Amino acid sequence: MSHSGFGTFIYFSIFLVNILLPFAVQAQPENSILDVSAQEITLDTIDIDTADDLEEETCSEEEIYPEDKTESTEIDECFLSFLDAPQKYVSSSVESMARNMDEFFTTNRDFYEKSGSYLSLKQNVLFRERGLIEYTSKVKFKLRFPNTEKNLKLFFESPEDKSPYNISTQSENTPTTIAEESNYILGVQADSGEGFGWKYKPTIGLNVDSTIDPFIRLRFSKEFNFAKWNIKWDEVPYWYNSFGWAFDSYFELNRKISKDNLFRAATFAHWKDETDQFELSQVFSMFHTISKEKALSYYAGVYGESEPKVYTTHFLLGLNYRQSIHKDYLFIEIKPQISYQKINRFHAEHSIQFSLEMIFKK
């Protein structure tokens, strides 16, 4: 698949999202995982009368029409100030919705990064075409030692996912080898600093396998709201003794489509000095809240590499249904997917995965 095929699929994905959005917006469940009713102002309740009241409270008649002539710019600023509260609400609710969705699906790279000690046990059963069945178990954990220095946190954790920034990839369906399961990371992480509008967090540690592999990692992150969009940007350079330098770049756009629907566009690029090439991905996702215990995400992704030229390695279409079956720590997942891989001449490969996950955390 050429570079043009890569671009064609992105346009097709955008078209697909536009087709599906009206159907997602129609669903309005009574209970929502993302309960934002506690906000001071909700857009649904801002009617004409309320807007008039806000306008009257903010700008009195004397302020708008003073005895001495007020410049038109000052009048406009005073008159439109009643929009400040709704705008602030929309921006904060998009950010809150994105964070809550990430925590519910536990797929975002920030969830485990920012949480304290945790343990996740996940059992997967994958059904592929031609009757193939695969059973995999995944253990994710992170232990933070409370008695270490406040600004330096000692931690011990399971290895990172192969594609930690790709929110929906085929990696969940890839069996983990024994060698990969035996890798563990012991490190020291400093508290976040801030400069030039970016937050940074340095980490130094050891990747413990049959050999000990020292590493250094520095994560730069930036998050801000622009109009109705929540934007996240991460840049992560790191060095491992075994393969040298590597670099991850991640850019994410979130937009709240309705009370229960969140749209996300995630762009990821990975470069490694050892291969001197980029691994690229673009994923479009829609998260839909069904109830307090149930949520649904559907996505379209395209993946590629940069050498010898930029080309597509595979496409992915999928859906992920996740439900809490007991309180906030026991979940089930159903994940049907269709994968089109270059190695198989982009022939459609269907699969469905059933998962049971238990999470231990504060």
Provide tags for this entry.
15 strands, Porin, 7 helices, globular, 362 residues, alpha+beta
- CATH top-level class: Mainly Beta
Mean pLDDT: 75
- The N- and C-terminal alpha carbons lie at a distance of 46 Å
H/E element sequence: HHHHHHEEEHEEEEEEEEEEEE
- The number of distinct β-strands equals 15
Provide the fold topology.
Blueprint: H1 3-26, H2 48-58, H3 61-64, H4 72-79, H5 84-105, H6 109-114, E1 118-128, E2 133-144, E3 152-157, H7 178-181, E4 184-190, E5 193-195, E6 198-208, E7 212-226, E8 229-240, E9 244-258, E10 261-272, E11 277-289, E12 294-305, E13 311-326, E14 330-341, E15 348-361
Antiparallel strand pairs: 1-2, 1-15, 2-3, 3-4, 4-6, 5-6, 6-7, 7-8, 8-9, 9-10, 10-11, 11-12, 12-13, 13-14, 14-15
What do you see in this structure?
This protein is of the alpha+beta class. The protein has a single domain, classed as Beta Barrel (Porin). The protein is built from seven helices and 15 strands. It has helices spanning 3-26, 48-58, 61-64, 72-79, 84-105, 109-114, 178-181; strands at 118-128, 133-144, 152-157, 184-190, 193-195, 198-208, 212-226, 229-240, 244-258, 261-272, 277-289, 294-305, 311-326, 330-341, 348-361. Strands 1-2-3-4-6-7-8-9-10-11-12-13-14-15 form a 14-stranded antiparallel barrel. The longest helix has 24 residues, at 3-26. The radius of gyration is 24 Å and the shape is globular. The two termini are 46 Å apart. Mean pLDDT is 75; it is low at 19-32, 34-67 and 162-181.
